[in-house]
Amino acid sequence: MSKMNKRKDWWKKSVVYQIYPKSFNDSNGDGIGDIQGIIEKLPYIKKLGVDVIWLNPIYKSPYVDNGYDISDYKMIHEDLGTMRDFEELLSEAHKLGLKIILDLVVNHTSSEHPWFKKSRSSRKDPYHKYYIWKDPVDGHEPNNWGSSFGGSAWEYVEDVGQYYLHLFAKQQPDLNWENPKVREEVYNIMRFWLDKGIDGFRMDVINLISKRPDYPDGPVIQNKEYGSYYAGAANGPRVHEFLQEMNREVLSHYDVMTVGEAPHTSADEAALYTDERRKELDMVFHFDHMHLDYGKYGKFSDRRFKLADLKTVMTRWQKVMEVHHGWNSLYWSNHDQARPVSRFGNDTDYRVQSAKMLGTLLHFMQGTPYIFEGEELGMTNVAFDNIADYNDIETHNIYHEFKTVHHLDEDYIMKTIHLKSRDNARTPMQWSDKENAGFSAGTPWLKVNPNYHEINAASELSDPDSVFYYYQKLIRLRHNYEIVTTGSYQIVDEKNPDIYAYTRSDEKQKLLVVCSFSESPITYKIPESLRVLPRELLLSNDAASETEDSTTLRLAPYGARVYLCKTGA
Ligand code: TEU
Ligand code: CA
């Protein structure tokens, strides 16, 4: 029975904690994180203060793409546990006031899914049209699209004499959303989980589900071998129609939250997904800030982001969502991205300070913040010397492409992998300085970051000045100050080369957030219009802040401050 509650926007005041189950906590010593392991850590998650847990895929999968290749949407992957384990997790989480959202991966399935096995058997099979098949053009692939994981996005199958589309690995065939039977199957899967009482979905590359019917060639960018599929597959002609149908048929009947992953989507396009009047999704993950350090070959580069670009991108998203009744998702990292303190901060001399600064910068913006497991500890990137120590399909593909297509040298290739591999986020959670960082009594499926002796939950829980307790304060301030949810964003001193400052305003008060990206101490003059206001220090990541006068802040390297200024009666 679906919950016919009026949909509430509880997610606007929530903070989400993302768990990559394989890497979170191993309860049975097989080296793989599992659902019972998550249950063991619910008190830790509750102590942090978050409201929602997002689980990366937990379904049956051959793990070609670590669960983003699903072969049974209604079965729990045997490595993670059983359906009873999941139901126990959901029940225990709800008892603690924690909501759980699942990862909905319906742009594609695994090639091991029974639907695909039937689809590829014959053009006449009723399931054939569940996927996207095209006849060869002049004996070749139907167009020049490349897969996200290297090679062509088309795979030829002799039995049917056609190519099928896979925007990701060839073991991840794209579903044909033009087929109403496919859409009904997806809605059925969603109701299956929603009727168990889950609290929503993160929707994997949901903006790719509607492809342009002419499947046009794409431009060859980032020195790739094949054309980009973004123009032909991102934000396609029927995507909003499909999502409004999904909302009407399923989501509107439940009190749930949705966040759609939307690569290659501008703020203006994203507003069409998240404008609550359109009844599609509550928010989307964009990638504009994730692309600021892309280089000649795209993601795998040794370029560093520029603060000016970060200010431009974040400000654009804040203003567009505000104007269009939309809502932001706020994140620095996830299971696909490098660790924030390594990518945007300083993970050596100023690791703790810069981790706290990055948390401050993000958590006072408009939107729902997402904390990826270990971010609350200031966990860092890893640097495995040998490519064989990496697991991720994307990493292995780029290694091969850089070697065989671009003939780059091993040192440069490994440098870009150290900086950008998705395995940076997937090394086991660091619980203690015990063997395997307390993650497993067995051999972890992916090596633990050797810095777990210094960086781990146990040591941070016993240190009142740790990143963990700072994140706890960030979350508490969001819960306690309505202005963090509702205030209007305004960037301050935009041209400052070292400082990112902004305000959030309502009719009576302003939040002033000042964050330094400099590795040197900075004397910062508060802009005239703000320095005259009475203000209260809400949060700071260094003690010096206690002794400041009203006009000048002396910020330590990566210093951060949050003030509440009274403007009205
Ligand atoms: O990621 C989609 C996506 O855009 C990624 O390919 C991203 O661009 C890339 O990982 C950046 O390096 C989603 C999932 O989050 C990812 O884990 C899956 O591999 C992918 O879809 C296919 O399901
Ligand atoms: Ca296990």
CATH superfamily of the largest domain: Glycosidases
- In spatial order, strands of the major sheet run 11-10-9-5-2-1-13-12
Domains, number:
3
Second-tier CATH architecture of the largest domain: Alpha-Beta Barrel
Number of helices: 18
What would you call the structural class?
alpha/beta
Describe this structure in words.
With 569 residues, the protein is of the alpha/beta class. The protein has three domains: 13-109 and 180-474, Glycosidases (TIM Barrel), CATH 3.20.20.80; 114-165, Oligo-1,6-glucosidase, Domain 2 (Oligo-1,6-glucosidase, domain 2, Alpha-Beta Complex); 487-566, Immunoglobulin-like. It is 28% helix and 16% strand. It has 18 helices and 20 strands. It has an eight-stranded parallel sheet, with helices on one face. The protein has a five-stranded antiparallel sheet with strand order 14-15-16-20-18. Strands 6-8-7 form a three-stranded antiparallel sheet, with no helix packed on it. Helix 8 (267-274) links the parallel strand 10 (257-261) and strand 11. Helix 11 (351-363) packs parallel to helix 16 and helix 12 packs antiparallel against helix 13 (410-420). It is globular, with a radius of gyration of 24 Å.
